[in-house]
């Protein structure tokens, strides 16, 4: 079901949030190579990082329902925003 390359990339994206949690004090450093790759080689519009982060939060809210409290949502919003900012860091 689906494109295996898209599935593999999705797994990388979600795994990167685990790395983000381990590097909360240095997100820009932790994502520097990915930022450079997405900017210089892949030419991804940095707005897509913010949009994808918001989609991930919506999916989590849908999946977890009432367990996805306002505090949990705020924590995830802060995390995805930090990751999006770190990924956009190398853009000029």
UniProtKB/TrEMBL annotation:
Pfam families: Globin (PF00042)
InterPro entries: Globin, Globin-like_sf, Globin/Proto, Hemoglobin_b, Hemoglobin_oxygen_transport
GO molecular function list: haptoglobin binding; heme binding; metal ion binding; organic acid binding; oxygen binding; oxygen carrier activity; peroxidase activity
Top-level taxon: Eukaryota
UniProt keyword terms in alphabetical order: Heme, Iron, Metal-binding, Oxygen transport, Transport
Database matches in PROSITE patterns: GLOBIN
Record bears the keyword Iron: yes
One of the record's GO cellular component terms: haptoglobin-hemoglobin complex
Keyword Transferase: no
GO biological process, one term: hydrogen peroxide catabolic process
Domain Globin: 1-92
Family in the record: Belongs to the globin family.
Name listed for the protein in its UniProt record: HBE1
Record lineage: Eukaryota, Metazoa, Chordata, Craniata, Vertebrata
């Amino acid at each position: 079901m689906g494109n295996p390359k898209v599935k593999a990339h999705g797994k990388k994206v979600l795994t990167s949030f685990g790395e983000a949690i381990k590097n909360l004090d240095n997100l820009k450093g932790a994502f520097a190579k990915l930022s450079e790759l997405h900017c210089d080689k892949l030419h991804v519009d940095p707005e897509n990082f913010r949009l994808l982060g918001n989609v991930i939060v919506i999916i989590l809210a849908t999946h977890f329902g009432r367990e996805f409290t306002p505090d949990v949502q705020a924590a995830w919003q802060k995390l995805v925003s930090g990751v999006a900012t770190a990924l956009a860091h190398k853009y000029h």
